[in-house]
């Protein structure tokens, strides 16, 4: 039992660093790959990542991969409704496609040569879906015209992943959300 506890403590300590380091979509020359036309329309926008799960669901060994990248831009040993993650989108680029996986358990894992946790238990949830192409032009135009940031929201459920978006602006120090869209429309959690 102590080995499992150490594994989880190490995982929790390294996740923020590993997620930021592995999420950078850069080449060996320090430049990011060329953006698709769909991605270019959102280039330079402030992006926020929001991840949670539906009420009562618990997903283990969760990993999010962008555009076929082998390293996850988001990973968490346990994802549920009360453990919502809200953070700057790690790569700063809206991915064309996102693959989300979760495992039978999160206790089977290892650290790769870069110190990133990698889960090795059997995959029980594996979903790939378009992201950038689903963001409406009206949302992009509104952000370009009146400011704000784009929130990319992912909600895990036992039989899939819901994807949504909205615009986030701050007023009086508090976030205000508008123009929600996607598979769920709520803006406040």
Quantity of strands, as a count: 11
Compute the gyration radius: what is it? 17 Å
Cα-to-Cα separation, first versus last residue: 35 Å
Mean pLDDT comes to: 84
Task: Describe the SSE topology.
Elements: H1 2-23, H2 37-40, E1 46-53, E2 58-66, E3 74-80, E4 85-88, E5 97-103, E6 109-111, E7 117-119, E8 123-130, H3 137-146, E9 149-157, E10 160-171, E11 174-182
Parallel strand pairs: 1-9
Antiparallel strand pairs: 1-4, 2-3, 2-5, 5-8, 6-7, 9-10, 10-11
Describe the structure.
- The chain has 189 residues and is α+β, with helices and mostly antiparallel strands.
- It has 3 helices and 11 strands, in the order H-H-E-E-E-E-E-E-E-E-H-E-E-E.
- The chain has helices spanning 2-23, 37-40, 137-146; strands spanning 46-53, 58-66, 74-80, 85-88, 97-103, 109-111, 117-119, 123-130, 149-157, 160-171, 174-182.
- Strands 4-1-9-10-11 form a 5-stranded mixed sheet, with helices on one face.
- The chain is globular, with a radius of gyration of 17 Å.
- Residues 17-29 have low confidence and may be disordered.
Give keywords.
189 residues, 5-stranded mixed sheet, 3 helices, globular
Compose a concise summary of this entry.
With 189 residues, this protein is of the alpha+beta class.
């Amino acid at each position: 039992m102590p080995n499992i506890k150490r594994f989880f403590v190490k995982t929790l300590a390294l996740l923020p660093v590993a997620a930021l380091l592995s999420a950078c979509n850069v080449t060996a020359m320090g430049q990011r790959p060329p953006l698709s036309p769909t991605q270019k329309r959102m280039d330079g926008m402030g992006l926020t990542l929001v991840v949670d799960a539906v009420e009562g669901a618990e997903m283990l060994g969760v990993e999010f991969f962008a555009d076929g990248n082998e390293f996850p831009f988001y990973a968490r040993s346990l994802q549920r409704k009360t453990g919502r993650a809200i953070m700057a989108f790690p790569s700063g680029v809206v991915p064309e496609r996102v693959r989300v996986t979760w495992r039978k358990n999160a206790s089977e894992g290892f650290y790769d040569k870069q110190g990133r946790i990698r889960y090795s238990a059997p995959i029980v949830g594996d979903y790939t879906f378009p992201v950038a192409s689903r963001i409406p032009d009206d949302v992009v135009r509104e952000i370009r015209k009146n400011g704000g940031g784009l929130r990319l929201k992912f909600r895990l459920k036992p039989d899939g992943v819901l994807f949504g978006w909205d615009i986030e602006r701050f007023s009086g120090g508090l976030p205000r959300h508008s123009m929600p869209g996607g598979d769920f429309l709520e803006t406040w959690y």
